[in-house]
Protein: Transcriptional regulatory protein
Amino acid sequence: MRSLKVLIAESDPLLQKLYSDIIINDSAFTLLKCVSTGPQMFEAMRCIDVDLVLLDLFLRDFSAIEGLDDLRKSFSRTDYIVVSSGENPELVRKALCAGVFEFLVKPFSFDRLRAALKNYQIYHHSLTGRTRPWQQEDLDALVSMKSHDPSWANNRSIPKGLQLKCLNDIESFLKSNEETFSAQEVGEHLGISRSTARRYLEFLTMSERVVVEYAYRRVGRPEKRYRMALL
Structure:
């Protein structure tokens, strides 16, 4: 998968630097440039293809409400994560109605920004890289990306007895394959037992990150087979 091209539109030089460091250290993204004013942002977007803009609505020389409409009309294939104050409820409503991917209210933690970027990475590649017909559960999971943190950066979200590395290994394996796998097959690939693989897969299923399909056999119970919900 290609890296996603990001433009930072932020007036504060310190925040520009902090956002830049996060993006530069994430191989899924490429930082194109940082701009400090509305005109600079529009000029940059006319010259280069941008997947995602980190946008402060209070950017200098940028009329937030009209500016959002102009951005959507001029650059319809670009997405936006707003990083801004939430003091103006009408502006927040307008941004959400305009279809921004996420609205992060300052001040926010950098883990929250990393989670938003991870959300966007999965969301974007799920839309653009899909090769098979959509199923309802996949679309439901895709729509929920805007409010669901797909990263396991917060270990408190992982049940006792499950390990972060094993979760990541299972997800990486499923993401790299479009076919379905049984718990036995996942376990054999990762060198863990069938029962251990099944515990992880069931947790991922409850977290709406993995979808279960049933393979019916002539005798006995149908076999559970697993795949990523978003591929």
